[in-house]
Fold this sequence. Notes:
A: 8 helices, B: mainly alpha
Amino acid sequence: MENITPQLYTLLVFMVVGSIVAIETRNLLSAVISVSAVGFALSIAFLFLGAPDIAITQLVVEVLVLIILIRGTILIDNTAIETHRDTLAVVTSLILFGLLLGFGAMIFGSSGFPEFGEPLMRVSRVYVQTGMPSTYAANLVTAIILDFRAYDTLGEVAVLFTSILGALALLRKDGKVAREEVVSA
Amino acid sequence: MKGMTLIVRTITDFVVAFIVVFGAYIVLYGHLTPGGGFAGGVIIACAFILLMLAQGKEVAFSRFGEKTAHVLDSTGALVFLAIGGVGLTAGFFFKNVFGRGEPFRLLSSGMILPANIAIAFKVVGSLYLVFTALAIFRRRSFRSMIEDELT
């Protein structure tokens, strides 16, 4: 495998710059487009890392999210963000995040947990060795998410189903009209 | 939504079928090549969202109605749960009890192919519904909110 670190660092710098632009820009549409640029760069990074499954998923989801967010954004008349971020809130969250990192380092650094990357691929070695003979699925990623880890996928399906149900119940017009009729009656 | 210009509408009419076929390929060959139910489902949903953006919501709803999307969404989730339940009869939840077939063939790997198809149905239905909810319902409710303010 050739050395891909320079390409990955370039993508990483691009993603960091894109995220900062997305946070700091005043125009909502520019923020949406910078977020999408970060997502597309992430998809290319997955391709470099040899994960075409995740790259495909990331790409198509990014396209869909871009369309939905742009449609949602251009419906709002005033897309400029006027409010400033609360300095106290930013400082507090930074301190809390630092504390989290510190305590995490204390817990994971001391003992009780194995070293990072040691032993290498303890769980995934079983998947890689028995995935093909026990499922006959040539694509190992699919063998893992739909056979070894199908229960996790069921959880994903349940989350997606519930969130769509909630979004439709909140956003649709019919329910609103019915409630207003109840209130007025 | 009224739709876009004649050029965009003609190209969209031509392209949508190919996008759906490509999405179906990604779903059906998910256990052999990169891809799977989720990615392929998003591609198919994108085809119908493209149709809605280019042709307007009447044409899109006549090809792929809101009710169909609801039915696909619910049946996908139920079928996936049922595939897990079939495994329960033979031992444990999501046990791969279907015939595994030959490796590198389309009809192989037991329950993974039907599970991919079920997830694809679910993803097509739900992402299409998300788009309609955010792009159309919201515009309607915005307008009704403004009308409420004025009256």
